[in-house]
Amino acid sequence: GRPPMSEKEQAENVSMGIGLSLAHAGANTAKMAVTPLVGIGLLAAGTYDAIGSMGITTEIAMERAVGARDQPQYEEHPGEMQVDVFDIEDADWKRLRQQYIDEGIPFVLKHKDPATKISDAMPPAASSEVLPEAQNTIHVVPDKMSAKFSGIDAIVKKLLPFTWRAYWPLWFTGNYKSGVAHVDVGPATVNFYYMQAGHKDTVIVPLEETRKLALKTGIDNLFIPGSAGNHEYLKNVGKYWRLKVQPNSILIFNNSGSLHHFTNIVEDGISPVALSVRCKHAIGSDPRGWLSLAANFKTWWNMTDHLAAFVTKGQDDRPAEKA
């Protein structure tokens, strides 16, 4: 067996243990100090979204009452529904804003010619740093808040002229099949989800159907436990959209109000790479999200961890089954 440790080795081990304990305690102390500040920001965001959502909903109802806005035209039906796809060249931006975004209905934008790229956006170098052995791990890398994405920024401006980015643009890569089905918790946004490479099998649940689901509070979301890697939960969902998001297309949907679930499809050795640009739009956000932001200390604590990972490590990795 191994010979007994010398007094020097024992002292070094004790010192190392004390040092690690102090470092861990110091990190937790710092986190305890920062969390209330993060909480104040989240409380403000939740309050803003609650007031904004109700105010915009009332405004839209008044516009319809006086004939200044068309009635909703998209007809939902029980079971699986198809997502409408529009060519960028022929897009009616006002109609898409009023009849789709404001109603919480997802849609896809693409070019008529598949060879015409929507954007030359590329992920940062850190997006390739996920370890090969880190199987079933979601690798999230934030881009600069001020990063310019040709093509994508122009589409955002045409659809939501007065919006702004409420969150870092996030690149999703990693060796995983799918995360959990979830609703994002944070400043209420519309997600401009650009498929830079590969395909994703995607489920999106309508706003009112999402409200009926029992969801658990996660790191930065409300989610269905046990939904990573499967779609068993769909048997309890009355209606939903499902599509295969193609490369060089943008899926636009209400990520703060609709349950959504992405499943990676690896074909010809190409793993999916996606960019999520979340832009402020309070209408349709889930009230449980407002409450979680405003009054849930666990959400504040988790968000502090999440943001700290971006600031200190430049990325955030998590097991696919962990929300």
Automatic annotation (TrEMBL):
Lineage: Eukaryota, Haptista, Haptophyta, Prymnesiophyceae, Coccolithales
Protein name (record): JmjC domain-containing protein
